[in-house]
Amino acid sequence: MDTKKWYKRLLFSHFAILFIAGAVISGGVYAVTYANAAADMKKANRAYAERVQDGMTSSLKAIELMLANQLVNNEAIDGFFNDPSGSSKLAAYQASGQIAKIRSNPLIHSVYFYRQRDRTVLTGGYRQALDDFPDKPFVLELEGKPRADHWSAVRTYSEFPLIDPPERIISIVKNAPHNQGLVVLNVKADALLAAAAKQRSGTPHYMDIADGDGQPLYSTGPSASIRSGTLTRLRSDYIGWRFASGTAGVNLAAEAARRALLPLAVILSGLAAIVAFILYMTRRNYRPIERMVRRVSTYGGERGEAAGDEFMLIESAFDTMLSRMALIDRQQAEKNAIAARGRLFAELQDGEQGPSAEEWAEYARLLGLPEDPRGLAVAIAEIDKYVPRMRQNRQALLDDKRRLEAEALRAAHEAACVLGLEWISGDRLAILIREAPSPSSPDKILPVRGMLDELRMRAGRELAFTVTIGLGSAAADVAGVKASFGEALSALQYKMTAGNDRLLLYREIRDMEHRVDSNCFRWLEDMVHHFRIPSPAWEADFARIFDYLEKRVLRNEELQLLLNYLTHRFAREMEEISPEINEYWHGVTMPSLAEALRETWTMREIRERYGALLRELYGRYAAILEAGSPFHLIFDVKTYIEANFANPDLSLNHISDRFGISGKYVSQLFKDRFDVKFVDFLIGLRVRQAQALLLETETSIHEIARQVGYEHAISFGRIFKKTVGVSPGDYRRQMLRGRIGHEC
């Protein structure tokens, strides 16, 4: 079944809008591009036509100007027209030379002078009578008309009819000097028209040129079938010709499409990006629905049952979900009691004040507890040696924990019964007990005590572990239940001295509670001192400490504090003995002591483990001393020097007398162990102390010298300057100035 119908419809609606918008934009871009291409083509065509027209006009004006310049004050031309005899060969020759100059322009076909007085015509090569001249009709026509400043119409003429075929020409006519005749200049029409073809080279334009009457003079082609129509029409007033131009073989639509490629590519890229964005966002927004559809489609067989789109599938699943939720609600109601019990014990354990009266009423309704909490008590059963047993066989321990729950529920006494129980940690089971004292036993807790003792003994017989149970007092109100829970926890704090597999009543054990006597710390210091000397008396000190602890009822925290202090003192002493013993202490003894404190549960077990570990350490220490190792001695010497460096009598001889060894041997040991001479070490201690006193006190230099072990201030000053580089007074002044400047 296709479960993405709605998704596809959503995409289709987006893409339809996008397609329409894209088509409109693309069409608009193409239309603008087409209009621009057409305008550019028309502009280019007009420019081409104007170039052709301007080129022809410029060429003819240049020829006309050249002719006018030649006619002004030209003696040779004047000589021909003013020849009185009319037969001077020299005048004709000189005038022919001027004609040759005028014909130097390649566009000029021919030039001739007509002298009206004797009707003689002079060309570039000969002189003849008008009657014999080939262009007589044109000359006669000119005689009967006034002179015009424009070019003639296109006509045919050959200067040498017998040699050259007639050519199309246009003529400009000027009056000879003093109006004695005519000067006729003929321009090659075909050469002039050829300029249009040169201008057209490499362009899609064509050109049609006609005279003033509309008669075609020239066409650049191509045929009319491939022409796109006339775009430009011009008329030259100077020549009298008409110019018509357009394009040929140009596919304007293709040109517009070519020009539109870049903007269309940008638009298409944008549309592609929009499509990608629509796909991404639609997919992203649809993903929650898709996950929902996938889940409901694969859960409970809705895929084959629902028809239509995703929302119909979801609606069907929702209906199914409602029916199942009704079933779940019924099942959840059965679990509420379990959850409520967990919350109740959590509030008793972690809450600051415990449940309120209203909350207790709700718990009573859910758990079937009495609304009146009077007579309720809390007991906590703790599994002895839980961590080692968990390491040995975890599964067996978990099975026995379930059996302990069952035994607690079966341990109902005729005067007491278990109302609820909950594991508040891995090794502790909290039990809520209801008791009803008999008239013969006014003590309300006695029936509960009997039931718990029976549970403890049964656990020892039938399970793989024993339990120690702490029991609080019977409650008088709701707050009393919380107090009873706290008392049960507190009773277990005495487990280390009371022992395992016991029932500990808080109201009894609190009256026997003791504090750690200060003598214990003094005995501990004696033990550490005897251990270091070394003296076997340390074992007597050890026994005295633990004998005292075993006879007292102490909280676990106090015992742990004392034992941690013992470990700390031994650690400090080991730092000052030989490296071998210090390494063994940190690598073996200290970790083992910490492990013993974590995993042992009674004072007797701790005594056995601590005694064995310390005896092993003492044996190694004594063996090193017996082997003659001097390192412990040099550490004692170093400690003595650090404590007595202010003694002015402190020297190698003093050390020799104090420790019973030669001063030279002490010096050698000091150098070997600490890589510094005895004297340098002593001076360093004294100078450092003197520096501190100079900076931190206003004591005189003489008094400071005495306090650091020098009887004479001069000796102190000399040694201080040799060590520090400046005298004590200069040192004090420099350091104080530097400190004041820094503070400013």
The helix content, as a percent range, equals 55-70%
Question: What is the end-to-end distance?
Answer: 84 Å
Low-confidence spans: 302-306
Form type: elongated
Mean pLDDT level: 81
Task: Count the beta strands.
Answer: 15
What's the Cα radius of gyration? 64 Å
Q: Beta fraction of the residues?
A: 5-15%
Main sheet: strands, sense, barrel: 6 strands, antiparallel
- Helix/strand-derived category reads alpha+beta
Which strand order spans the largest sheet, edge to edge or round the barrel? 3-2-1-6-5-4
Individual helix count: 28
Transmembrane segments: 260-282
Domain HTH araC/xylS-type: 635-734
Coiled coil: 387-414
Keywords: Coiled coil, DNA-binding, Membrane, Transcription, Transcription regulation, Transmembrane, Transmembrane helix
Description of the structure:
- About 1% of the residues have low confidence.
- The protein has 744 residues and is α+β, with helices and mostly antiparallel strands.
- The protein is elongated, with a radius of gyration of 64 Å.
- Helix 18 packs antiparallel against helix 21 and helix 19 packs antiparallel against helix 20.
- A hairpin with a 2-residue loop joins strand 12 and strand 13.
- The strands form 3 sheets. Strands 3-2-1-6-5-4 form a 6-stranded antiparallel beta sheet. A 5-stranded mixed beta sheet has the order 12-13-11-14-15, with helices on both faces. It has a 4-stranded antiparallel beta sheet with strand order 8-7-10-9.
- The protein is built from 28 helices and 15 strands.
- 61% of the residues lie in helices and 13% in strands.
